[in-house]
Design goal:
Pfam families: WG_beta_rep (PF14903). It is a single chain. Helices cover about 0% and strands about 55% of the residues. The strands form 9 sheets. A 4-stranded mixed beta sheet has the order 1-33-32-31, with no helix packed on it. Strands 5-6-7-8 form a 4-stranded antiparallel beta sheet, with no helix packed on it. A 4-stranded antiparallel beta sheet has the order 12-13-14-15, with no helix packed on it. Strand 17 and strand 18 form a beta hairpin.
């Protein structure tokens, strides 16, 4: 494993540890190295995720997952089938009973297991469960694991800016507050979650996607085959009519910042995006070679990375062949 680090970056990330793997006679094993490439936590795990802001990392051992600290010691023993990333001090774990919520100490906060629990945003987490009549509905939990909005929605989204889009029934969507009160209703066959005051929507069941404001007024007419929520004034859209990909990045007026010619685009934070060109043009699902770009349309690198992860504390990791590259903003 090789690692490259920008000049002057050590003082910022010397306390960081990064997952690293190696092939052994027992299979691929994972551990953690520091920015200089020195192994800090031995390669004994079957899987290893990045350390999070709370100083914990999810690791896998013998088919189960737990949480370790920077010393490599288990804070939560590997007893779960899955552990999500922490959000607002909470993580979702999956065991034989279903989904539950834990705190950083590993204490289970929910009084029962659910068939689904999402991540916490704005103090709320989406949950789903089957009711007695076998109907599957969604509601919301608070950070203490209590049901503050009962399971009454056919579909629902995470909260953004203390609001979320839910579906009561066919062609009846609504924007609700954290207590479940409907603020606006939308008579469309599909409405996506709110992102910076705009929502993706479809006027007809088999139609294309556009954007409305929170009052339901059409801002960008339907013309996309897929449309993601806005982040930092930009949204990722697709123009492909078939199974190919023609992703672009638009502003809130619907103007293309990046033209719809890319195999993949995803937000990285810090006003940066990863833009991907198909490795095999005739086989777009084979994967992409990525470049780092800015949200104003400036391309900063060549299309030479297999992956680029989100920026955290001003640093993003990228993979180029067998090298781990640390990119700064």
């Amino acid at each position: 494993m090789n690692i490259w680090i920008s000049e002057g970056l050590f003082s910022q990330i010397m306390t960081s540890l990064y997952p690293v793997s190696s092939k052994t006679i027992s299979g691929v094993k994972w551990g953690y190295m520091n920015p200089r490439g020195k192994i800090q936590i031995k390669l004994i795990f079957d899987d290893a995720m990045e350390f999070q802001a709370n100083g914990l990392a999810v690791v896998g051992l013998d088919g189960k997952y737990g949480l370790i600290n920077h010393g490599g010691n288990f804070v939560v023993q590997p007893i779960y089938d899955s552990i999500s990333e922490f959000s607002e001090g909470r993580a979702q774990v999956i065991g034989k009973e279903g989904f539950k919520v834990i705190g950083a100490s590993g204490k289970v906060l929910t009084s029962k297991a659910y068939s689904f629990i999402g991540s916490f945003e704005n103090g709320r987490a989406l949950f789903g469960e089957f009711l007695e009549d076998s109907q599957y509905l969604y509601g919301y939990l608070d950070r203490q694991g209590k049901e503050v909005v009962p399971a009454t929605f056919l579909t629902a989204n995470e909260f953004q800016d203390d609001k979320a889009v839910v579906q009561f029934q066919s062609k009846e969507y609504a924007l609700i507050n954290k207590n479940g009160k409907a603020l606006h209703k939308y008579p469309f066959p599909f409405v996506g979650n709110v992102g910076e005051g705009l929502l993706a929507f479809k006027e007809t069941e088999d139609g294309k996607f556009g954007y409305i404001d929170v009052k339901g007024t059409i801002v960008i007419p339907p013309k996309f085959t897929s449309a993601m929520p806005f982040e930092h004034g930009r949204a990722i859209v697709n123009m492909a009519e078939d199974y190919g990909n023609e992703y672009g990045l638009i502003d809130k007026e619907g103007n293309f910042i990046y033209p719809p010619v890319y195999n993949d685009i995803h937000h990285l934070g810090k006003n940066r995006v990863a833009i991907g060109m198909a490795i095999k043009e005739e086989s777009p699902f084979y994967g992409s070679n990525y470049a780092l770009g800015m949200t104003d349309g400036t391309v900063l690198t060549e299309f030479k990375y297999l992956t680029i992860l989100n920026f955290k504390e001003g640093v993003a990791s990228a993979q180029r062949e067998k090298k781990l590259i640390l990119l700064t903003n």
